[in-house]
């Protein structure tokens, strides 16, 4: 029989609630993550991705997904945000998985800032997958909601961009709110970049708007409107646009981002230097991007 001290220690450890640990694998019905516990995060099984409250300003937080490993300067690379345009307070805000199956983000006044708008009477769990996809599911096969369907400014490998989604740049390197540059499928089935700036000014700038689809190396006949890239760095689109990363191959962490300057870039992580390097970009002449150069530059 164990000593009384040993048995007391075991009983104390077993009595510690799950919320006391900083790393979580799964969020279940009736549980929540608090903004007041910034290290209380969901972590993917491979440890490459984390999800939790991320500081975006003074007493301002967004629920986000980021690459777990910090860069050389200590910063994190954000890949998704639930509430980029409506940060919550640093006190009393929570991400909660309700017993009705709805995932909600509430601020200090208990106002719902964001919600998955899902309902399920079955057991539901929220988990961050190894792909960087935050998934709310009712079973192994039933997905109620996933972050891959609602990207912000970044795509990850095998995350499709569809007719129902778009990438929107951040306002600046330090301001994560929605910016002026958007990548999406237009009504003519072509993947396009749009500058949608202040003062109701908007214009397409990639591919060059004066080109016909065939002159731009595209086709408008496929209306399925899907673009995706694999882990090796091969990007394909149903309008027949494609490219390969300059370091094409497996074993590299990649992302595709509409940057704050309006360019699309694919990045690879240099793990030894802890820096991102771009391995493809859509536009080689920055001043062809609207709002970048000249007297009306942002």
UniProtKB/TrEMBL annotation:
Domain Bulb-type lectin residues, every copy: 18-149
Membrane-topology annotation of the record: Single-pass membrane protein
MF terms (GO), sorted A to Z: kinase activity
Highest rank taxon of the organism: Eukaryota
Assigned GO CC terms: membrane
Entry-linked Pfam families: B_lectin
Cell compartments where the protein resides: Membrane
PROSITE patterns, per the entry: BULB_LECTIN (PS50927)
Leader sequence residues: 1-22
Keywords: Glycoprotein, Kinase, Membrane, Receptor, Signal, Transferase, Transmembrane, Transmembrane helix
Listed PANTHER family: OS07G0415500 PROTEIN (PTHR47974), RECEPTOR-LIKE SERINE_THREONINE-PROTEIN KINASE (PTHR47974:SF3)
Protein name: Receptor protein kinase
Originating organism: Actinidia chinensis var. chinensis (Chinese soft-hair kiwi)
